[in-house]
Specification:
Helix content is about 35%, strand content about 15%. It is of the alpha/beta class. The radius of gyration is 17 Å and the shape is globular.
């Protein structure tokens, strides 16, 4: 067994709840559907990901999609459903905000905000999220350099919000076999250049469910502080990103794999986001 690997000495942990801290020894796994589709669906998912060991529930209310004909999410109606399901499961919740005008509404329901890849350089949005002081996951843009990624984070920080977690989710390259190309080198490079925690989204990077486990294992091995994984009760019926969503049993198996990878590196996976 390798010697225990400490998180980067530069990493400054970001606390969402006492049991959900990014950048500490424990890995945080965020899991849930791309989009909330109804109360029973999100309730079932919240219970399943909690029981498998996820530390935070995710679910989209406002979904920016490439095609205007694709499902755009339930909008504001989804927020109380998401918050209710998370509360019942005892998990903190994260959801995406894509417009500065949505921030005040979303912070009423979410414990953490997500800035999607398409919004990484939406500077008015970054400023508003900075002023909110709510913890935030900032996703790397589809074609953003690491310098641009870090400067986007600074747009949030200079407004007074230091609780920023960076998320590598794959970049667009010439390769078309996967949805995007996961840039594993970003993990150690970002940890060298910044004190911010770094997590990885293997679902968007691979774009196919069978690619999620190997990409997740690779991310943990490269030093990621956590993962963001799409999970759905019936992946084939998902109204958003069906190809990359894991079912409940697949997600539980992934969590067992993550446990084994983390143990080799002397790290643990946070077992739950429930306050102890």
């Amino acid at each position: 067994m390798l010697a225990p690997t400490e998180p980067s000495t530069r990493t400054r942990p970001v606390t969402v709840t006492a049991a959900c801290v990014f950048g500490d020894r424990e890995l945080v796994v965020i899991a849930g559907p791309c989009a909330v589709e109804g109360i029973e669906m999100i309730r079932a998912t919240a219970r399943a990901v909690r029981d498998a060991g996820a530390g935070m529930l995710r679910g989209g209310a406002f979904k920016p999609r490439t095609s205007p004909h694709s499902f755009q999410g339930m909008g504001a109606e989804a927020l109380p459903l998401l918050a209710q399901a998370a509360r019942e499961a005892g998990l903190p919740v994260i959801t995406e905000v894509g417009d500065p005008r949505q921030v005040d509404l979303v912070v009423q329901h979410a414990d953490m905000l997500q800035i999607g890849a398409r919004s990484m350089q939406n500077y008015p949005l970054l400023a508003e999220v900075g002023l909110s002081r709510k913890p935030v996951v900032l996703k790397r843009g589809l074609a953003a350099t690491l310098k641009e990624f870090l400067l986007a984070a600074e747009h949030i920080q200079v407004r007074g919000n230091e609780a920023v977690v960076l998320c590598e989710r794959g970049i667009r390259t010439f390769e078309t076999a996967s949805r995007f190309t996961l840039d594993l080198t970003a993990i150690p490079l970002l940890k060298q250049e910044t004190h911010l925690p770094v997590i990885v989204d293997p679902s968007h990077a691979g774009g196919k469910a069978h690619l999620v486990p190997p990409l997740a294992r690779a991310a943990v091995a490269a030093g990621a502080d956590g993962l963001m994984v799409e999970v759905h009760p019936r992946p084939a019926e998902s109204r958003s990103d069906a190809d990359q969503a894991l079912g409940f049993a697949e997600f539980a198996d992934l969590m067992r794999q993550v446990d084994r990878c983390a143990a080799v590196l002397g790290r643990a996976r946070g077992m739950t986001g429930v306050e102890q």
